[in-house]
Design goal:
It is a single chain. The protein folds into two domains: about 5-175, no CATH class; about 180-225, no CATH class. The chain contains nine helices and six strands, in the order ααβαβααβααβααββ. The chain has helices spanning about 5-10, 15-20, 50, 90-95, 105-110, 125-130, 130-140, 155-165, 180-190, and strands at about 35-40, 75-80, 110-115, 145-150, 200-205, 220-225. It has a four-stranded parallel β-sheet with strand order 3-2-1-4. Strand 1, helix 3 and strand 2 (about 75-80) form a beta-alpha-beta unit. The longest helix is centred in the C-terminal third of the chain and has 11 residues, at about 180-190.
């Protein structure tokens, strides 16, 4: 975790960190090998105007509890972050479903962290505001044997990866456009790859039911419709 001074000079960028990702991570079997640490950040990292429309957004973070199945491998340790503390009964109920591993063994390899903040904001933003909490996480994450797993990858997750100096398993936010319908069509057209016909759908903020605040100029949004 970069803390300033010479550490900042030595800090790796998001893409440099991603080069540390290993193909075998996520496929640890029978406890062979050195194992891996997984930091789960189930943040609903959306635009704040969208977050405001979701009641109790922090409850969506529990959807990623299925990822605890990774603890069935004895070599895996997991750090799970959430906005509010997870119920012990909920966690135990999930761990009891793991095949071939005692619940107590899996629980010893699971570390829970929370921000104690139920506000309708992305969990990742709350984590970035709490350096002491990030420092506690960094103490557990083994260098060269850790990665971050997220529900959504945005610039917030990029900042978290660089702050902790831990690679993130996900698409870099600056190329997410190429995975959209409009981006895929543009890429296919540039490369001469045959693709289905489509038309562009364009809207302006004046046609939205609840236009977001902006500078006063109309906002234009375009996408591809198959």
């Amino acid at each position: 975790m970069a803390t300033g001074g010479t550490d900042e000079l030595a800090a790796l960028s998001f893409r440099e960190l991603q080069q540390q990702l290993q193909p075998s991570w996520g496929h640890t079997t029978e406890g062979r090998g050195p194992g891996v640490d997984v930091l789960m950040v189930p943040s609903l990292s959306l635009d704040q105007s969208q977050m405001d429309l979701v009641t109790g957004a922090h409850h969506y973070e529990e959807r990623q509890l299925f990822a605890l199945i990774g603890l069935r491998h004895p070599g895996v340790r997991m750090l799970y972050a959430s906005s509010k503390p997870l119920g012990e009964l909920v966690v135990d109920a999930v761990l009891e479903l793991l095949p071939g591993v005692p619940t107590s063994h899996a629980r010893r390899r699971l570390h829970l962290f929370d921000t104690d903040d139920a506000s309708n904001r992305p969990l990742t933003a709350k984590l970035l505001e709490r350096p002491s909490l990030l420092a506690r996480m960094a103490e557990l994450l083994r260098p060269g044997r850790s990665f971050i797993s997220c529900f959504v990858v945005s610039d917030l997750e990029r900042q978290l990866s660089e702050r902790l100096q831990v690679p993130l398993l996900g698409t870099p936010p600056d190329v997410l456009h190429w995975g959209s319908k409009a981006g895929s069509r543009a890429l296919f057209a540039r490369c001469g790859v045959p693709h289905p016909r489509a038309r562009r759908l364009c809207t302006t903020s004046s046609s939205w039911p609840r236009p977001p605040p902006h500078s006063g100029r109309p906002i234009r949004s375009c996408a591809a419709a198959w």
